[in-house]
Write a structure and sequence with these properties.
two-stranded antiparallel ribbon, alpha/beta, about 35% helix, binds magnesium ion, single chain, 11 helices, binds thiamine diphosphate, Rossmann fold
């Protein structure tokens, strides 16, 4: 089939043992892309979907009209949150390897997406994250202990044992539950945004999917609804080059950028350097302002790289070169923000080492507290009776029978 003269079968640029090759990735220079006003007509700004908005240049200096001029404290807070996300991920990956949780997914290399975008929204904006957006839960102060207890499915699990590890939720902070069913959160976000507009509220919605998930029908339904009703929503595609073992070309990334998926519907697209916190913040803020002003949806493609395995059930050495991440031309988002802060005279390598150490301690303390609420093997355990609650307002007869059977087994009277 690979030799068929008519069909094009996408092939990744490099396989294990080969030299990484990112020549397919079109880059723009930092500062080179124009920044239109937020009320610009979609038809006039189509180039934003095809070029790449970048602010930090190769010398870590901020360039051009998209420079958001964030103050020192905000930049330092962004760095802290990105490092915290990385340290949390590292710890959770290791506890999975030790058999203490059943499953985990890292956001290694993608930290600027959640932190840069999260900073651009208001607390009342409703976010529908994907499974590599743990940074959004961290930055909206879900609490490390709460997040760890969810992964442990222990007695303090916010999902009461009903979700896989990492499918957090935080209703109070307007963070929807993460779903394993790819792209379902897109239509939900559009619907929520329409609801907000119907109620006359100022809040907007945002959602995230991966490059591979853009091939899901839900992605396209959501875009159509968002365009037709001009929903106040920011829709994001995290293009980390891979969908498990499938490279982004299989979802159509070779033809046109994912940011251009909405152009046919009249939805403006922005393709952005997803490892440049300043560019991520600036483009997201632009789209959020536009949506809040009644300008409707924007589709943002964040170009980044999945630095780790897809999940703890995956071995990427089977399908991509080991050193591909090191060769990725957009670098490491944490290092780039760190270097930028050093360049500004606000930071140093010593302070970075100290910060990493402090945050490792914070995460270690949180883990100690989390396991005190139970682990897979150590009590306290969740009460199994919980599985019968919260689903139906009035429990149906067949569930009552099952619950009574359980209580009988435990020697308790129903
Ligand atoms: C509807 C649906 N189809 C397939 C899967 C299996 N699956 C889980 S993750 C994944 C890859 C998704 O890749 P991408 O959208 O690029 O996100 P990334 O993991 O790279 O962040 C697939 C196919 C699923 N969970 N849901
Ligand atoms: Mg992907």
């Amino acid at each position: 089939m690979t030799n068929n003269p008519k069909l094009h079968i996408p092939q990744p640029a490099a396989r294990p043992g080969e030299v990484p090759d990112f020549s397919y990735l079109d880059l723009s220079d930092a500062g080179a892309v124009f920044r239109p006003p937020t009320n610009a007509r979609a038809a006039e700004i189509e180039n934003l979907a095809l070029e790449m908005v970048r602010v930090l240049d190769d010398d870590h200096v901020a360039q051009g009209p998209w420079n958001p001029d964030l103050d020192k404290d905000t930049l330092l807070e962004a760095l802290r949150l990105m490092v915290l996300t990385r340290v949390y991920d590292d710890r959770m990956q290791r506890v999975q390897r030790q058999g203490k949780i059943t499953f985990y997914m890292q956001a290694l290399g993608e930290e600027a997406v959640s932190i840069g975008q999260g900073l651009a929204f208001e607390p009342g904006d409703m976010l529908f994250p994907a499974y590599r957006n743990q940074g959004l839960y961290i930055m909206r102060e879900t609490g490390l202990v709460e997040m760890m207890c969810q992964c442990l499915s222990n007695s303090r699990d916010m999902c009461k044992g009903r979700q896989m590890p990492i499918f957090y939720q935080n209703k109070k902070k307007n963070l929807f539950t993460i779903s394993g069913n790819l792209a379902t959160q897109y239509p939900q976000a559009v619907g929520w945004a329409m609801g907000s507009a119907i109620k006359g509220e100022d809040h907007i919605a945002a959602s995230w999917v991966g490059d591979g998930s853009t091939a899901e029908a839900d992605f396209h339904y959501a875009l159509t609804f968002a365009a037709v009703y001009n929903a106040p929503v920011v829709l994001n595609v995290i293009n980390n080059q891979w969908a498990i073992s499938t490279f982004q070309g299989f979802a159509g990334g070779e033809r046109r950028p994912f940011a251009a998926r909405g152009l046919g519907l009249g939805i403006p697209g922005i393709r952005v350097d997803g490892n440049d916190l300043l560019a991520v913040y600036a483009t997201t803020r632009w789209a959020a302002d536009r949506a809040r002003q009644g300008g409707g949806p924007t589709l943002i493609e964040l170009v980044t790289y999945r630095g780790g395995a897809h999940s703890t059930s995956d071995d990427p050495t089977r399908y991509r070169p080991k050193d591909e991440w090191e060769a990725f031309p957009l670098g490491d988002p944490v290092n780039r923000l760190k270097q930028h802060l050093i360049k500004l005279g606000h930071w140093s390598d010593e302070q970075q080492t100290k910060l990493e150490e402090e945050l490792r301690n914070t995460v270690n303390e949180a883990w100690k507290e989390a396991v005190s609420f139970g682990t897979l093997t150590e009590p306290p355990f969740l009460d199994v009776e919980l599985m019968f609650e919260d689903v139906f307002a009035e429990m149906p007869e067949h569930l009552k029978l099952q619950r009574n059977k359980l209580l009988d087994l435990r020697g308790e009277k129903s």
